[in-house]
Amino acid sequence: MRVFTKRAKATAGAVAALTAGVLALSASPASASGTYSGLAYVYGGGPFIDDWNNEGIVDQSHNRTSNATCLWQKILWADGILEAGEIDGDFGPVTAAATEIWQDRYTTDTPDGSAGKITWTAAGRSLYNSDGFQSGNSPSYYQGVAHYFYVSRDSNGYYHFPDYWGDDRIAGYNYRTC
Is the distance from CB of 77 to CB of 87 less than 8 angstroms? Predict the structure, then answer.
C-alpha cells in the first residue's frame, strides 16, 4: 500500500508539473501585449491591401508611447486631423480626440478614441504602391485626404515610415524613437 501511495504521489506530481509547463508555453507573449498578430511590430506580407487587419491596439492604455503610435499619428496627419508637430509617439488626449474624429469619418464602428483592429483595417485601405494601385507586394505610400507619406516593409515584413524629421522608423509597439 505504501508503494502505491508513493507511486500515486509521484504520478500526480509529474502530471501537475507537465500541466504547468504546458500552460506556461501556451501563454501569450508579454512582449507584444495588445497585439492581435502577436508580433511586436506593425507587420505585413503579400498583397498589402489587408496588411493592417490584425494590428495591435494603440491608445491611452495600450502601447501609449511607441513607434506604432507614431505611425498612427502620421495617418491622422495625412488625413488632415493632426498637425505635423503633434506626431510624437505619445498617445495623449489630443491623439485620442483626433482618433475619434478619424473613426467617425472612416469606420462604421462607434468612435472610441482607440486605434484597434477595426480602425487599423480601415486605415490599411489607403495603402498604395508606386503605380497607384492597391495590389502587389510592396506598399510605398499611405494616401490621406490632406497628405501622403511613404511606407515600406523590410525583409521581416515590418513597416517602416519617416518620422517628423524624415528619419526612417520601424513601427514597433514596445519602444519609441520618434
Answer: yes
Please state the separation of Cα 68 from the chain's center in Å. 6
**Cell numbers given for 30:** 508579454
* Pairwise CA distance, residues 128 & 141, whole Å: 6
pLDDT digits (tens, 9 = 90+) for 86-110: 999 999 999 999 999 999 999 977 9
User: Which amino acid type is present at position 105?
Assistant: R
Terminal Cα distance for the chain, rounded: 69
> Please, what is the Cα angle at 27 between 22 and 33, to 5 degrees?
170
C-alpha cell at 137: 507586394
Q: Give residue-wise pLDDT tens across range 1-39.
A: 444 444 444 444 433 343 333 333 333 333 334 445 678
Give me 174's grid cell.
Answer: 514596445
CA nearest 157: which of 170, 141, 169, 142?
Answer: 170
SS (H, E, C) 47-91: CHHHCCCCCCCECCCCCCECHHHHHHHHHHHHCCCCCHHHCCCEC
Question: Do 49 and 135 meet the contact criterion of CB atoms below 8 Å apart?
Answer: yes
Q: Measured in whole angstroms, how far is the alpha carbon of residue 58 from the centre of its chain?
A: 7
